[in-house]
User: What shape does this take?
Amino acid sequence: MSSRSRGNIPRRGTLVLASTSPQRRAILDQLRIPYEAVAPRYEEHDPPEADPVELVCAHAVGKARSVHRAGSVTLGVDTTVHLGERIYAKPNDAHDAAAMLAELAGRTHAVLSGLCVLSDRGDVVQAQDSRTNPAIGRRIRIDNMWIAKAIEESESPLHVA
Assistant: This one.
């Protein structure tokens, strides 16, 4: 994990979460951190030649800056999946999510997250990346029925992949 830090995180002010992700809201809820979730006004561009770590960090900063307001601490996060030379964009629909899961099944891939915290003045306080290397389907059999059930039962099917 790498990090770049400038300054200290303010102790007061409203936390603005630049995300509509149910998973990100659930994390803050479990930690009992008060926040306001705001849909980012940031358009992601994922050029195929991009470095995946730089990409998630840039997206996290872009999302945070797109909703930041003076006096608030803003949290932006982005996650992508990377396998070989391919960076997987967020699936457009359940069909894309199923195809992505089928392609990743049984293969170790990287899940990369970028995180950005903006101070109440809008300065980047923290920008960092994190990597995990899951291998879905190594211990259980991943087939089309499993994928369909995972997508059907998910609160947010496009976040399954």
Q: What stands out?
A: The chain has one domain: 2-159.
